[in-house]
Amino acid sequence: MKLLLIEDDEHVAQVLAEAFSSDGHETTIRYTGEDGLAYLSNERPDAVVLDIRLPSLNGVAVLRQIRSSDQALPVIIMTGLATPGEIAEARRLGVTEIIEKPEVLKHFSAALARVARRDKA
Hints:
Elements: E1 2-6, H1 10-22, E2 26-30, H2 33-40, E3 47-51, H3 59-69, E4 75-79, H4 84-92, E5 97-100, H5 104-120
Helix pairs in contact: 2-3
């Protein structure tokens, strides 16, 4: 799959991108919500992997903007610090999956498999 990873921590982003690559996924990294949205204005990946805690434009705001132009794009939110309100808002906006950050690598392959099944349905 072609993935867009929006994660502000460069080390975490590199570790995740390497893990995704080893699973056969092509990953583009953007470090801010604004840069991720700029990328999406020209490209459409198979899925977006989005950190909820980003500088200036947080993950929920990014998801809101994604949904304003693309209801079908799968978005997987990673979080370790999301509030219940942020989780509820992400679900209301139609997030595809929510994965707790310490568990991202453990559960990511299963989440992408579910995304792929939804695309085929």
